[in-house]
Design brief:
By secondary structure, the protein is an alpha+beta fold. It has helices spanning about 15-25, 50-55, 65-75, 80-85, 95-105; strands at about 5-10, 30-35, 55-60, 60-65. About 40% of the residues lie in helices and about 15% in strands. InterPro entries: DCC1-like.
Length: about 120
Amino acid sequence: MTGQPVLLYDGDCGFCATCIGFAERRIGLRARPVPWQFADLAEFGTTRERAEHEVLWAEDGRLYGGAQAVARLFLAAGRPWSLAGHALRVPPLRWVAHWGYRLVAANRHRLPGGTPACALPSKRR
């Protein structure tokens, strides 16, 4: 897998879709956004369980998840966003970013664009 990076996200989640729209309009998303529900996850070397757990950035045969996927999104966008991307890769900000990502992911149904369905496991949606 080479070429344009791919951003795998939860296509059933309103908050995730809102974030993708924001990234496309305001950040300059330089990846192909693909709902994980429509992706061949094995092609990316991942599983449904991981894709349900976090956003994934696939590039040049490597896979980054959660806060590090967001860092890659920022890095690819160029300045000024790439400065945030670099910062999110370095401890202790990396650790804070991981914690913050987990907090947002656990509460995405409460955030703008989120719906009660965002809180349900995908098997129950």
